[in-house]
Amino acid sequence: MDNNNFKLDVFQGLSAEQKYLSSKYFYDDKGSRIFQEIMQLEEYYLPECETEILVQQSGEILRQIPFDELDVIELGAGDGSKTVVFLEKAIQMGKRLTYVPMDISGDILEVNQQHVKERLGDLPVVPMAGDYFVTIKELKNREKPRLVLFMGSNIGNFQGEKSIEFIRFINEFLKPGDFFLMGVDLKKNPHVIRAAYNDEGGVTKRFNLNLLERINRELGGDFELEAFEHYGVYNPLDGAALSFLVSLEDQDVHIDGQQFHFEKYETIHTEISQKYSLKELDQMAVKTGFSWDRHFTDSKGYYSLSLFRK
């Protein structure tokens, strides 16, 4: 990560009237390890729901895709541990695939390749490290039909119209007849959602506070972690789950020669995780230029893998 960009973004966020820090900076090595802990939490239902759909409904999803040969392009692919379930089913159904995992981390793509090799042997894999907004353009001239995967409810991290802009960006990359499969966390009992971002063991709190610790480590900050509390809230009216760090006292923090003042109980907004209804997803499909969509949900109706066709 470019520390200069990190510093500029931190300075900009902490100078705003409503202080904020970008959630993309959660995932340094320590943050990534803590997030793996979150993924195992009983309260954090998302991975289990997505895995259930992949295990039980990959065949049905793939039957909607008429191509015998295609590129499967995964944005933010991570370690690929869930995706291999889908890829394996596609191969069993006789589809000839090339898997193109894309991730900001070259290290995690090496793990991804190992997972694929162990499960799927000689499946062609073309890993692409970097910002997928940039690297995806390198695939423009590939001739095969395309299925773009965007799993893990990552669409929820885009605020407001930015989610529409992102899906339009995908639509523009696709050719007519191509497909887009997106993992989406659905609106549900607000208590279930709130608990996912406020676990009893405090793992989510550690995850958020690590962002301040990272500023201390990498930018020479002097945040006192004990002087901040984590607070997660869900608004069922607009479907937004929001995370904040709350200053527990009137204090000044210094980062690389700059001073930032916090009033007692002032907040830093750290993350949004947007939830959608199936009706809203249908509307998004139309709004972003897709001609067709279908939703595959888990047994509780908590989560959807939504398939869009251009």
Automatic annotation (TrEMBL):
One MF term in the entry's GO annotations: methyltransferase activity
Keyword Transferase listed: yes
An annotated GO BP: methylation
Gene3D superfamilies: Vaccinia Virus protein VP39
Keywords, sorted A to Z: Methyltransferase, Transferase
Any Pfam family: Methyltransf_33
Histidine-specific methyltransferase SAM-dependent domain segment(s): 7-309
Protein name: Histidine-specific methyltransferase SAM-dependent domain-containing protein
Classification lineage: Bacteria, Pseudomonadati, Bacteroidota, Cytophagia, Cytophagales
